[in-house]
Amino acid sequence: MSVEIGLNERSPTTDESLRLGMDDRLATPVRSRRARRQVPHGLGRLLGPVVLVALWFVATSAGWVDARTLASPAAVWDAAQRLLETGQLQDNLLVSLQRAMTGLAIGVTVGVVLALVSGLTRVGEFLLDANLQMLRSMPILALVPLAIVWFGIGEEVKILLVSLAVMFPIYLNTHAAVRGVDSRFVDLASTVGLGRIALVRRVILPGALPGFFTGLRFSVAIAWLVLVVSEQINASSGIGYLMTQARNIGQTDVIMVGLVVYALLGLISDTLVRLLERKALTWQSTLQSR
């Protein structure tokens, strides 16, 4: 009887310890997966640039690349500090930001309006879409000579080039998103008695937002690309002008400073667009999580 009681007293403890041990072993992979998930997304996105800079440092330090061809990160850092002390970097950066933001605002506005007119009306599509597709096939930079003839060599031509380059990705992606709205939602809106304006505001525009943000990400990157070239054409200010002056006297470190600035601007602007997209499309992430 005593032996039986002793066994009965020990067995729950033994079973409980086995169960706890099994739970700990099963929970270990879960904890490790949770630990991996806790890495901030923004910090993970910095991994690629960090690796790129490390490769750049190794290539220049080991002598694989001539310093006259590609300045080292240390030389670029010294050049950036020198430009900051003289105020050249801040002044030219401010000018480039003004040009890019103005051109981006104009291009996005025009692209969205054209996409809505062409996507929502049959007449608008007939009048606009073919012409815009022809213009899109032309290289934007090939229009530089004609733009200079029309607008001179001032600020207008640079903003015009950025606006044109930005407009087409916005138009294409927004137009495709407007036309790609699920017809079932349109039928449901008609069933509940929504008018055309309410249909556009409550169904078509929210449904086209993902395409709009895709075009906006392309447009932001293209804006900086076109700005680099436009600021090297008869410019007297801007990061592109600073790089042109450095090229004339062989300062590769200053050229690299300009390239790094453009790269950082592109990364920051793309991150801001992604954050804006995440805030605006919270309903989409909620549906996808179900």
TrEMBL record:
Q: Note the topology in the membrane.
A: Multi-pass membrane protein
Q: Where in the cell is it found?
A: Cell membrane
Per the database record, which ranges form the ABC transmembrane type-1 domain? 93-273
UniProt keywords (A-Z) are: Cell membrane, Membrane, Transmembrane, Transmembrane helix, Transport
**Pfam families listed in its UniProt record:** BPD_transp_1 (PF00528)
* CDD domains, alphabetized: TM_PBP2 (cd06261)
Source organism, top-level taxon: Bacteria
Give TM regions: 43-65, 100-123, 135-153, 159-178, 203-229, 249-269
Task: Tell whether Metal-binding is among the UniProt keywords.
Answer: no
Keyword field contains 4Fe-4S: no
* Family, similarity comment: Belongs to the binding-protein-dependent transport system permease family.
What is the protein's name according to its record? ABC transporter permease
Species name for this entry?
Nocardioides hwasunensis
